[in-house]
Design goal:
Keywords: Signal
Structural class: alpha/beta
CATH architecture of the largest domain: Alpha-Beta Barrel
Shape: globular
Organism: Marinomonas profundimaris
CATH superfamily of the largest domain: Glycoside hydrolase/deacetylase
Oligomer: single chain
Low-confidence stretches: 1-5, 7-20
Protein name: Polysaccharide deacetylase
CATH topology of the largest domain: TIM Barrel
Number of strands: 20
Largest sheet: 7 strands, mixed
Order of helices and strands: HEEEHEHEHEHHEHEHEEEHEEEEEEEEE
Pfam families: Polysacc_deac_1 (PF01522)
Number of domains: 2
InterPro entries: Glyco_hydro/deAcase_b/a-brl, NODB_dom, Polysacch_Deacetylase
Strand content: 25-35%
Distance between the termini: 68 Å
């Protein structure tokens, strides 16, 4: 029989072991269609999806419930080693037909962000509430993707800022109510359509206790903005298993501060200012890439602070800078991404201050 001293030593060793196996960050995979007949840019085939899920299983990844994992990260509670979460945007029926059987067979939890307008009008291309209930029984969670999937920062012609905000409030609150009405609960999570948000929309999320996702790539940690969380796209051009492996092994960039200049780009080149936490990092190996432009220029203003600048202005649309840096083991990459919107007058975007 073990003495109290021996029990204490054993428990202490177990605690150290558990901490060593713990993870304080979470990569989240983003999918849309699981089909051979849907748009390739937002799709994986059932075969590709099977390949992804089989890799998670054989490589020892622990697929976790997204909301529970976010709560734990925010509370600085450790996640299992190699924790990862799976998510889908839009309420496509092919998720049920092509993706759900694969997830169910492997007992993987998953989250689907649903836009409810096509669900409510019973479109044959979208999920039904009954299908969602069936999926819930096998680890599915259904969250908010607005009613009509609008560009949330665009005003309709002649619309005031107040009317725009009222319309966006309806887009969010209506879906929350429909989730409660049809499924009995809401996880209080939202994915911004097209990944677009601003301080006004993010404040709306915070006031409602809703955690929200953009479309910038990266890894969630306790330091993340929980009203603008990153995910890794895993469909279309991003569906290759080789690139997915790199993202699954990514870590959050160890930043003390970041300055992006806001959500909107202008006719000037964008830049970001990154300040790194104290620590031994391979800062000389940091590389930042601008969408469609190649490498950004890096200006180290101090040993721990860098300004990354695009070579030229973005065109109209969404532009991004991705930064990566190998960790000291060389097995993982630290990852950071930021997205800007370059708007055109006819698109009706709200002002930067709205």
């Amino acid at each position: 029989m073990l003495s109290k001293v021996h029990c204490g030593i054993l428990l202490g060793a177990l605690s150290v072991s558990m901490v060593a196996q713990a993870q304080d960050y979470l990569p989240v995979l983003q999918y849309h269609h699981v089909s051979t007949s849907s748009p390739k840019s937002t799709s994986v085939t059932p075969e590709q999806f099977t390949e992804h899920m089989d890799y998670l299983k054989t490589a020892g990844f622990q697929v976790v419930d997204l909301r529970s994992a976010l709560d734990d990260l925010r509370a600085h509670k450790p996640l299992p080693e190699k924790a990862v979460a799976i998510s889908f945007d839009d309420a496509y029926r092919n998720i049920y037909q092509g993706g759900f059987p694969i997830l169910k067979e492997r007992n993987f939890p998953f989250t689907v962000f649903i836009n409810t307008e096509p669900v409510e009008r019973q479109s044959r291309s979208f999920l039904t509430w009954q299908q969602m209930k069936e999926m819930e029984a096998s680890g599915g969670v259904f969250a908010n993707h607005t009613i009509r999937h609008p560009y949330m920062l665009r005003k309709e012609k002649g619309e005031s800022d107040e009317a725009w905000l009222s319309r966006m409030t309806e887009e969010v609150d209506t879906v929350e109510n429909l989730l409660l009405e049809n499924l009995g609960h809401s996880p209080k999570m939202l994915a911004y359509p097209y990944g677009e948000s601003n301080i006004t929309i993010r404040t709306m999320m915070k006031e409602r206790g809703i955690m929200a996702f953009g479309q910038q790539s990266g890894v969630v940690s306790a330091d993340s903005d929980f009203e603008n969380l990153p995910r890794f796209p895993a469909s279309g051009a991003y569906s290759k298993l080789s690139t997915l492996k790199t993202k699954l092994n990514a870590k959050p960039m160890p930043l003390l501060a970041e300055q992006t200049g806001g959500d909107f780009a202008t006719d000037q080149s964008v830049s970001i200012r990154l300040t790194f936490k104290e620590g031994k990092y391979r800062l000389k190996d940091l590389a930042c890439y601008v969408a469609g432009q190649g490498k950004a220029s890096l200006n180290w203003v101090s040993k721990s602070e860098v300004i990354a600048t695009a070579n030229k202005p973005f065109g109209v649309g969404r532009g991004r800078i991705n930064c990566t840096m190998p960790d000291n083991t060389g097995k993982h990459y630290y990852w950071y991404s930021n997205v800007w919107i370059r708007s055109a007058p006819e698109q009706g975007y709200v002002s930067e201050k709205s």
